[in-house]
Structure formats: C-alpha cells, structure tokens
Amino acid sequence: MEEIRNTCLFLVQQYTNIQADPIILLPPTNVCLWGCKQKIKSRSGEPGSLSRLYTDHDSSESCTLNDIDGSQKKCWKFSLLCKRCGSRYSYATYSEPTLKGPENISHSKRHFFYDTERAYVAVSNEVFWTRRLCRLLTSDIYWKHSSFQGFAASMAWSYAISEDYNRKQTAEAFFRFHIEAEIRERRLLKTPFSEHNYDLLLPSLNEWNRQSLYPHIHTTECLAKGCRFCTSFDGIWKLTHLTCSFKIITKNPAFGDLNFPSDCPEEPLPGLLFCGRHAGVAAENNLPLTRKELKLLTKTKVNSSSTEVTALSFSSCNKNRGLRKYRIARSRGWLFAVSSAGIIRTFRPLYGSESSSQVFYAMAQYLLLEIGDDEKWTEEERRKFVVAYDDICHVDGLLQARNDLPFSGSGINLWRNVVKIIDRFHIGNHKKQCQSVYNPSKLLDVHGLNCQFNTETCEQVLSKFGKYKQSAFMMGKQRQEFFLNRMVKIHNSIVEQSLAQGREHLHFNGRRRCNNF
Predict the structure, then answer these.
(1) Is 437 left (phi over 0), alpha (psi -120 to 50) or beta?
(2) 203 and 217 both lie in a single domain
(3) Given CB 3.0 to 4.6 Å as the disulfide criterion, which of 25, 54, 99, 372 pairs with 368?
C-alpha cells in the first residue's frame, strides 16, 4: 500500500501543484478479497486514467471532506482494480467480480462494505463526512429534534459556509451513516447493495426489524418498574407518509373476517399517486396519475366510525381513531409498544385510521414474540402479563378476540390469558362498564400493593417522537420506518443507561408522569 500511496501523492502534487501532503483516500487493502491471491498493483498510465489505478473522476478534481469544526478540506479519492477478476475497490466499498473483465470499464453494481469501518462516510462521489460530524447530526436530531434543513442551515451560518451544506446532502449523510451502522450491527457485511443507492437496502432492513423485538436485557432496576410484565400501546398520528392511492381488498385468512383498511401500503412512484403495481391499472381506468391532474388537494375530515363486528357492547365509548380522508393518500401513523420502564419493544404502521382490527393484529403478533416462547414463559407468568391501551374495550370486543389465535401450541390462548386494562390517563374518559372491566387497579390484584407499573409510558415516549415530524414527515415509507428504527435504538440505549445509574429518563420527569399505574 505504501507504494500505491506514494504514486498517488506524486500524481496529485504533479498535476495540482500542491506541495503540502494532501489527503489521499485509498481502499484499506491492496490484495483482492475474492480469492485471486494476488496484489492489486498499478502500472504507469496517463493522468486521469492511471490504468489499473484510477479515479472515479479526473485526478485533478478534488473531493470535499467536511468535519465537525466546520472545516472543508480538499482530498483526492483513488480506486484500485483487480487485474484478474475485475472487482473494483473504492475507499468505502468494493464490488464483486465483473464478467466483462478488467479491460472493460463497466463494473458490477453490487457492492459490499469492508470488514473494518472507514474513518469517513462517502456521502456522494465528491463529498465525504467525518463520522463525528455524522454523530453530531444524529445527536441534534434526537435531542433537539432538528430537521435536515435546520442542521444544514445551522452549520452554514455558524461557520460562514456559503455552499456544500444543504438538506439533500445532510439527509444522505444521515442515512448512509446509519445504514452502514445497521449492517454492521446485524453482521450482514456480505449483503450486496448499490454503491450509488443505499436505499435499496431499506426494505430488507425494515423487514428484519419487524420480525423481532428490540433487544433488551432485564435488570433489577427495570424489573422493579414492571418492564417484563407490562406493555402499553398507543398510536402516533403526526408521523405519516405518502401511500399509493389505489384501493385494494386486504384480508388475512388466519384471522378470519377481521377487517383491514383498503389502502395500498406501498410507496407511490416519484411524481405519481400510485405505486409501480397499480400505476398501469390506474392509467387504464383514466384515473389521475399526478398531483397536477388531481386539482382538489384539500383534505376532508369525516366522522370516525367502527366497521368491526363486536361481541360486547362498548360502542358508547367515543374513541377518536383519527379517521381522515386525504385527496393524496397518506398513512395514519405508527402503533408503538413500550414497556413499563420506557423501553420501546416494537412499532407497526397504521393505515386509514387507528382501527381496532389493526391494533388487535399488531398486539397478537407482539404477544407471540414477547411471551410466546414456552421455554421462557410459564402459563402462570403469562396470566400476569399486562397489556394497556386507551381503547382496549373495542379491541377486546372484536369477535376475533373471542376465538383462538392462529398460532400453534399455547399461542392460541395468548390473548385470553393476558391482563387487559385501560391506562390511567384515559380511564376517566370511558363509560362505567369499561371502567369496571378494564380498570388499571387490576394491577394491584395481580402484582401486589407495591406495584410501581407505569401504564402511561407510551404516551410519554410518543410526546417526544411526535417532534420528529419536521424531519420525517416528507420521507417515504421505507426511509421513515428506518429513521424511526434508529431513533428507537438510541432511545432504548439512553433509557437503559438511565436505569443503570438509578435515575429516571428525561421523558418521564414531566408533568404527565404518574407514580403508580
């Protein structure tokens, strides 16, 4: 590598007239990682092409390295090419072998991250960010709820930088930094992706996150707050995203006649109102495809109504489910599950409204992941598990809630076994029948008079997450879900640190804090 670095230094100094040592960005290896068993060497070539050692753009052009102190340093990026298999090694990623051979400058679009983390993040072909600048951006978003535009404007104003900081570049830096972090945390370094479009990884990463709960090791401090035995649910309506405007019939045979919203959950194509699967159908039916064709853009509020068939008569409880009709289709938000100690366990998308059918389906899936393991949970422990939700009366009143769940083994009785309550903050808004059946005082009968469970943790946590609207409102579905996933992981790590230090997290010290359930 020293020989290659010296060659790069010579070329940069010769063609740019720079005497001081310039910043050279090279791959971390000069040996092919695909088993070619030979060093990737350079041979003499003309400036700008450099034969086996070449740059993505003319070598006389420099990249920009942005740092946390506002400095913007010039640097030069070089890539190496294996002579035998044609794989390309850039500063941050390397590609798989190309079938066209090294003599053809047509390279594979499938790239991989190196085993070791690089010092800088490639935001684009011409811009790099230091990792501490990416961490500062993440910290500002989490603690100050800054938007990407706000952070870019703050950096530009603070350091009198007229260019190179904008909303698009800041957002790209955030997602590239955290996508790589997620890949490394999950040890998925062999997962291929496009070097110029990291977003292609988001559907897979989001799907993996939905299939499991966020990891958490119980401690004495969190167990005292009921972290293992109490989970509260609530929806957040401020964080919505665009969806396909085509209406579909959604059914899940395993859950019988449970009614789901007719919204297509896919993202619309850029500039269109429909996703790739329904755009052609919409065009055949002469439906408006773009916003310009759809002139009426105002949203109309309608009265919420329940379409689910209920077995118990709790319809008199007037729960606002946030049902709205948009001229341009949007989701209704996200349903969060938060333990009594403040640890977020999972979250699921909501469409149309916060309907009882969607909430029941999400709760059933959560219970299967949380208490469905017979090796970790006994039948007696399951009967002590508490589910708190502000509209649990309508959810538990569904006909499907009277039947067995479509799971194997003891999973069929998960819903019947758990204790279902309305959280302390909303119990006063319900009728006497609901207050009698789902009163939070049931916790005292199950867990004793010294019970310190907080059934309002979801409300308290979502009061913070709602402030991310400035950053997340204009994101697509995949980006918004991944953004929330990274904020959730940061939140959980901070709450765990607070519990370990014997103090409560900031979210639970406000005016809405409750001492007992």
Answers:
(1) alpha
(2) no
(3) 372
Chain segment 194-212, per-residue pLDDT in tens: 877 888 899 999 999 999 9
Q: Could you tell me if 251 and 202 lie in one domain?
A: no
Query: Would 282 be classed as within a structural domain?
Result: no
133 shares its domain with 231: no
Q: How many domains does the chain have?
A: 2
d(CA 416, CA 418): 6
Least confident of 130-134, 272-276, 283-287, 353-357: 283-287
In angstroms, the CA 430 to CA 317 distance is 6
Q: Which two tokens stand for residue 160?
A: 């009198």
Do 188 and 238 fall within a single domain? no
Report the mean per-residue pLDDT for the chain: 81
Q: Are residues 317 and 391 in the same domain?
A: yes
| 399-412: pLDDT as tens digits | 888 888 989 888 89
Distance CA 254, CA 405 (A): 8
User: How distant, in Å, are the alpha carbons of 287, 363, 488 from that of 316?
Assistant: 39, 23, 35
| DSSP 3-state of 483 | helix
Instruction: Give the whole-angstrom CA distance, residue 272 versus residue 264.
Output: 14
Same domain for 312 and 259? yes
If you ran DSSP here, which 8-state letter would residue 113 be given?
E
Q: What is the DSSP letter of 31?
A: B
* pLDDT range class, residue 507, cuts 50, 70, 90: low
Range of 488's domain?
212-267+304-508
> What distance in Å separates the CA atoms of residue 180 and residue 335, rounded to the nearest whole number?
26
- Are residue 201 and residue 88 in the same domain, yes or no? yes
In a shared domain, residues 332 and 411? yes
Note whether 427 and 514 are within 8 A (CB): no
Main-chain phi, psi angles of 251, to 5 degrees: -135, 150
Cα distance from N-terminal residue to C-terminal residue, the chain: 62
286 in a structural domain: no
Hey, what's the torsion of the CAs at 381, 384, 389, 395, to 10 degrees?
80
* Confidence band, pLDDT 50/70/90 cuts, at residue 318: low
Q: Which is more confident, 162 or 512?
A: 162
Per residue in 60-114, pLDDT (tens digit) is 357 889 999 888 888 888 888 887 778 888 889 998 887 554 444 444 578 999 9
Q: How far is CA 28 from CA 4, 65, 128, in A?
A: 12, 18, 16
Q: Is 151 exposed, middle or buried (0-12, 13-18, 19+ CB in 10 A)?
A: buried
What pLDDT score was predicted for residue 370?
93
What pLDDT is attached to residue 214? Answer: 94
Determine the pLDDT at residue 101: 44
Helices 167-185, 202-210: axis angle to 10 degrees equals 50
Residue 295 has pLDDT above 70, yes or no: no
Contact 301, 324 (CB under 8 A): yes
Crossing angle of helices 477-500 and 202-210, rounded to 10°: 50
